Amino acid sequence: MWHAYRVELYPHYNQFTGITDEQGHPLTFPAAFRKRRRDDQPKGIVKVVSE
After folding, report:
1. What is the rounded CA–CA span in Å between residue 26 and residue 21?
2. Which of 8, 21, 31, 49 gives the lowest tally of CB atoms within 10 Å of its CB?
3. How confident is the model at residue 40 (pLDDT cuts 50, 70, 90)?
4. Which residues contact 41 (CB under 8 A, 6 or more apart)?
5. How far is residue 22's CA from residue 37's CA, in Å, rounded to a whole number?
6. Strand intervals (E) in the chain
7. Residue 44, SS3?
8. What does each C-alpha distance from 30 to 4, 14 come to in angstroms?
9. Is residue 27 over pLDDT 80?
């Protein structure tokens, strides 16, 4: 998906990512991917919902 649309897709089942925040708390996928790695700027999350 990244090469065609510049979008990354990740599943979310309330599991932790192994990434921690500034206080050392584990982050779930949505929380971990809300900031860009290179400069900590916020980035968007899109939720795909089936109809």
Report:
1. 7
2. 49
3. low
4. 35
5. 14
6. 16-20, 26-28
7. coil
8. 22, 9
9. yes
What are 44's two structure tokens?
């968007």
What is d(CA 47, CA 7) in angstroms, rounded to the nearest whole number?
12
Block residue for tokens 């090469």: 3
Which helix or strand (DSSP H or E) is residue 5 part of?
A: helix 2-5
Sign of the dihedral defined by the CA atoms of residues 25, 42, 34, 37, in that order = negative
How far apart CA 31 and CA 44 sit, in angstroms, is 11
Torsion over CA of 19, 22, 25 and 31, rounded to 10 degrees? -60
Tell me the average pLDDT across 26-43.
77
Q: Which of 38, 16, 39 is nearest to 28 (CA)?
A: 16
